[in-house]
Amino acid sequence: MSDEHPPPGPDAARAYRLGMATGVVVGLAAVGVLFWTGALTPLTLGYVMVALFPVYMIAVAAVLSVWLGYSKDATALQPVYKPK
Fold first, then answer.
1. Which are the contacts of 48, defined by CB distance < 8 A and separation ≥ 6?
2. Domain for residue 76, yes or no?
3. How many structural domains compose the chain?
4. In 6, 22, 30, 44, which residue has its Cα 20 to 30 A from 83's Cα atom?
């Protein structure tokens, strides 16, 4: 039995795009609700949008890539030079 997993296909690519779009909507909705309820001031809203939201989106991308099979381990690395 092979330990090789098939590469992700077009369905995984669509699921990744949908997951990223959902992550953006959920994140912005959460920030909007926090601002609307007064939990965030305009200054903290700016900090959240500039410093924290990109980190949240990277985490969403990382989780989706592992879940959909885009992750690679050390065995997938190849040398970047040509042997002589």
1. 31, 34, 40
2. no
3. 1
4. 6
